[in-house]
Design a protein that fits this description.
- By secondary structure, the chain is of the alpha+beta class.
- The protein has a domain at 67-208: Aminopeptidase (3-Layer(aba) Sandwich).
- The protein has helices at 7-20, 39-50, 74-88, 101-116, 119-123, 131-145, 190-205, 220-224, 243-278; strands spanning 27-34, 52-65, 93-96, 150-157, 160-170, 173-181, 210-212, 227-237.
- The chain has an eight-stranded mixed β-sheet with strand order 1-8-2-7-6-5-4-3, sandwiched between helices.
- α1 crosses α2 and α4 (101-116) runs antiparallel to α6 (131-145).
- The protein starts with 6 loop residues before the first helix and ends in an 11-residue tail after the last helix.
């Protein structure tokens, strides 16, 4: 936590401490670091004279606040209205997002079952597929919910949950963590409907000022939310010399990132093609959650 009025002094002291401590590495790796208007610029000002900085990647992450919320018009909004109306014809539709500890933990169990029954369960990547992951996530939600820092929003039809969105909180900011939905309702885009309604309800409640999607730029959140926040992956070298060593380390990190992106894109393409072979959806581009 840094007081904005003291950002330059704190950043200078931080880098100086790293530079002088013989036990600390001299290259700092920033991953998904928010390029806010205070701290990151202070870092760049300091490094302009005393160190080296390489920005590896920059992404615009979707977010919402009271002025930049969900999209109110266009093809995305039209489809959401159509999906909601069609789902409402099936039964009584409601959104539930209770933040009591007991309700959050019960709803998280519903999420775990929905996720395990989805393609993630088939691929072995659902939390319930690994006993250690399941224990950790349950303990995480239990401890956070006890301090009003976690909840699970549910989209229910006639009382039956067909989609779940895990939400984490820090102060007046909410983070959308994981989503799961029943495959039999995929034609209604239940995950998107739930995110849309839950985000609007949180912003209208007054308890949440900002919602961070924690989503990649090409995901469904980018089509749903109008706001954007810039995040960077960067390397910082606090040493005054040894430019060659820093150049080599930069190339290694950049290459690793590129390989991971290629791997993830290949996995996503294989998953989509496999799902398309099992079922034909009217709008398959909405399946990316």
């Amino acid at each position: 936590m840094i007081d904005g009025a003291c950002a330059d002094a704190v950043v200078a002291a931080f880098f100086d401490a790293v530079r002088r401590d013989v036990h600390l590495p001299k290259v700092i790796v920033l991953r998904s670091f928010e390029s806010d208007p205070v701290v990151y610029p202070a870092m760049l000002r300091h490094l302009a004279d005393t160190g080296r900085h390489r920005e590896l990647f920059r992404i615009e992450r979707p977010f919402a606040d009271r002025s930049l919320g969900t999209k109110k018009s266009g093809s995305t909004r039209k489809k959401l209205r159509q999906d909601w109306n069609r789902l409402s014809a099936v039964g009584t539709v409601e959104i539930v997002n209770e933040r009591t500890p007991a309700a959050a933990e019960a709803a998280f169990e519903i999420f775990l079952k929905l996720e395990a029954a989805s393609w993630k369960g088939d691929e072995g990547t659902a939390l319930l597929c690994d006993a250690a992951d399941a224990r950790f996530s349950r303990r995480l939600i239990h401890k956070l919910a006890a301090h009003d820092l976690a909840s699970v929003a549910l989209l229910r039809v006639d009382g039956d949950a067909i989609a779940a969105q895990v939400l984490l909180y820090s102060g007046q900011r909410a983070y959308t963590w994981k989503t799961a939905f029943k495959a039999s309702f995929a034609r209604f885009s239940p995950g998107v409907l739930l995110a849309d309604k839950a985000i609007e309800a949180m912003l209208e409640s007054g308890h949440v000022v900002t919602v961070d999607s924690c989503s990649f730029p090409g995901g469904f959140m980018a089509r749903l939310l109008t706001g954007r926040r810039t995040f960077v992956d960067a390397l910082i070298d606090v040493r005054p010399r040894n430019a060659l060593a820093f150049a080599v380390e930069t190339a290694q990190h950049r290459g690793y990132k590129v390989v991971r992106l290629m791997r993830n894109r290949m996995r996503h393409a294989i998953r989509r093609s496999g799902a398309a072979a099992k079922t034909a959806l009217p709008n398959p581009e909405w399946k990316g959650f």
